[in-house]
Amino acid sequence: MTTTSAKHTAYPPFRPFLAHVADVTPLSAHFTRITFEGPDLEHVRRTGYDQRIKLVLPLADDPRWERSPLLAADCVERGAWWDVWRALPADRRNVIRTYTLRTTPDDGRVCIEFVTHEGAGPAGTFAMTARPGDTVVLVAPDDRAETYGGGIDFHPGVAGNVLLVGDETATPAILGIIGSLAGTPWDGSITALLEVPESGDVIAAPECERLDIKWLPRNGSARGTRLVRAVEAYADEHPRSFVTRWRRTGDSPAPAYTETDVDRELLWETTGDGLPSIGSTSRLATGSDGFYAWVAGEAAVVRDVRRVLLRDHGLDRRRAAFMGYWRAGKSEI
């Protein structure tokens, strides 16, 4: 089955790719890497960082995607997959979940790292039961498109000191950011604070001389407890990172602190669009050492980390990204 026409010459920034499971590799008790191959996956754009994509699961009666409207020419060639999916009857809408495009090997295959656990939802169940040959659709950026379609929220601007904070669901994105920074001339420093379920969930991180990484296994403690305490300790130890110094560019005063009700609203605050620009001139001159924080994971924990950084230590929220990837007890897309 092909997903593009021979005569097609223009491509949307994001579009569906048919993908077959090629390999399933357990990384730890709670992390599994799945490698996908497919007829067009060599065209998935290799942007790196925290590049988000959509994983679309098959319907039970169409596991090979032979009848799916999501692979019709209008979806693949114009990128209309979202409108097509929304127009489907509720019982014909494929399950969609958001993941980080972890790696894109040179052989044209792509990898996603999944968090697996008891009582997992549809995507976690797929990861725990996947076998070579199983087929999904990945909605991802196409490197043949003339414009970039988004999906990256790591925007450090002029920062030379980066703090990365997250739980297991944000771990693939954080490792992707570290690997991307390690491959650039950027010579700043990175501190990564990663809370994972157990001690055995410490997985390999990309090599980076400027990296200080701390793994924080819960080992039965309450979610977020170790992560919030680690952020508090970091903020206490690095007071200079929270000194705001503004250029005279006409920017408005720093926004006042307000807190998001994560049970009613999406917590998603970012600082820019497009591809990251490391160490380049920005309208916002941040701090005495150019500090930037990227925080993601369970929304209530992200809210608590945000409170520590913004309210308790005075960080301007334009110097950080806060993203509630999921909310405990709720299904997410």
UniProtKB/TrEMBL annotation:
CDD domains: siderophore_interacting
One protein family per Pfam: FAD_binding_9
Location of the FAD-binding FR-type domain: 14-157
Protein name: NADPH-dependent ferric siderophore reductase
A GO molecular-function descriptor: oxidoreductase activity
Source organism phylogeny: Bacteria, Bacillati, Actinomycetota, Actinomycetes, Bifidobacteriales
Gene3D superfamilies for this protein: Nucleotide-binding domain of ferredoxin-NADP reductase (FNR) module, Translation factors
